[in-house]
Q: What sequence folds into this?
């Protein structure tokens, strides 16, 4: 049996090693987080990359059992941001020096929506003279749609697998044609094969989720060799079917602690990828995003959505920063990152080093 320190110093981790690391508490957890931070600083430095988040629309075809903007939640007032406002958000990102934006949306697969995203991609490239990198997070689409968006200028795509365990996936999604585990896997494979910097991730602290499931999630990310990962705590929403399990999930403190450990272990497994410090971290813990950054994350997604829409994109309750103006957010984040000896890298796309290196290698082969 390896000692905890021996496991920490390994280059390759067995599933049992991962479970041991994820189970660490107290001094051992601190050893894990220290090693993760050292690894991050060595391989990707103390730069924090920004993705200005535009929550384009809360109209969604899906009924995910955890999500506050799910189709069947009639309490939500549905919105779609105007074209002008989307382009203004991109201009603001440019002005604030955010090198990248992320367009996230409830899921739509109709031709109007697909064309509209193409329009935004082209216009934002034009208005920024190619200076703004664009990540999309618009859910499950056909390979053809992903290709169209890629050809229009999207180069990163975020689609969380939510859980890599099929049984758990169907406990948090309805089991029907629209929510299909194999299709989600197919989407992630398509994105990778099309050449996107592909990001995926999971929610942490879901009802029925075990440490074994979480270890398998990390193994799945590694197996797929993804360029980016976004993981954050599950937060129960009162208008969703999973609300009834709210008393059966780990406490806020435990979910935050497991999020730190998941980020830390993944940093040891995938040293050069980009990892997001999720807004959900800050929602359950005032220092949550800082904790995630110290544990190994290196990306933050400040919200650029016009304030009048934000209350209607509550995928979970009490979302952090909903009332903040983008300019306030900008200053607050800068200070917060300095306070933990990190620095925001302005005016840069902030691509995944892992992806760039792999791509270069393939070009040379
Ligand atoms: N529809 C797109 C998709 O599925 O990727 C993008 C929007 S979706 C609302 C973005 C992410 O929000 C999901 O991947 C999910 O992990 C997260 N999310 C939704 N409900 C949540 C909750 N109750 N707690 C924490 N995260 C949640």
A:
């Amino acid at each position: 049996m390896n000692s905890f320190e021996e496991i920490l110093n390994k280059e390759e981790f067995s599933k049992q090693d991962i479970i041991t690391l994820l189970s660490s508490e107290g001094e051992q957890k601190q050893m894990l987080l220290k090693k993760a931070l050292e690894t991050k600083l060595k391989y990707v430095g103390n730069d924090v990359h920004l993705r200005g988040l535009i929550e384009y629309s809360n109209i969604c075809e899906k009924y995910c059992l955890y999500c506050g903007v799910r189709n069947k939640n009639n309490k939500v007032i549905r919105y779609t941001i105007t074209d002008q406002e989307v382009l203004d958000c991109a201009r603001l990102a440019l002005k604030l020096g955010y090198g990248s934006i992320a367009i996230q949306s409830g899921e739509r697969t109709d031709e109007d929506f697909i064309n509209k995203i193409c329009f935004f991609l082209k216009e934002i490239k034009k208005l920024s003279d190619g200076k703004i990198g664009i990540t999309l997070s618009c859910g499950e689409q056909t390979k053809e749609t992903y290709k169209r968006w890629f050809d229009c200028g999207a180069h990163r795509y975020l689609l969380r697998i939510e859980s890599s365990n099929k049984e758990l996936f169907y406990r948090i999604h309805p089991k029907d044609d629209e929510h299909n585990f194999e299709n989600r896997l197919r989407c992630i494979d398509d994105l990778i094969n099309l050449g996107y910097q592909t990001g995926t991730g999971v929610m942490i602290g879901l009802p029925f989720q075990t440490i074994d499931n979480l270890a398998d999630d990390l193994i799945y990310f590694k197996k797929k060799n993804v360029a980016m990962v976004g993981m954050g705590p599950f937060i129960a929403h009162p208008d969703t079917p999973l609300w009834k399990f709210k008393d059966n999930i780990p406490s806020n403190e435990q979910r935050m602690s497991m999020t730190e450990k998941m980020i830390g272990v993944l940093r040891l497994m995938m040293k050069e990828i980009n990892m997001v410090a999720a807004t959900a971290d800050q929602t359950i813990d005032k220092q949550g995003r800082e904790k995630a950054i110290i544990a190994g994350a290196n990306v933050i997604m400040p919200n650029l959505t016009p304030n009048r829409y934000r209350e209607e994109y509550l995928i979970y309750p009490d979302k952090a920063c909903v009332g903040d103006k983008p300019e306030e957010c900008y200053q607050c984040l800068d200070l917060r990152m300095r306070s933990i000896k990190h620095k925001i890298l302005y005016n840069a796309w902030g691509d995944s080093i892992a992806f760039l290196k792999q791509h270069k290698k393939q070009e040379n082969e």
Observations:
- DSSP finds 15 helices and eleven strands in the chain.
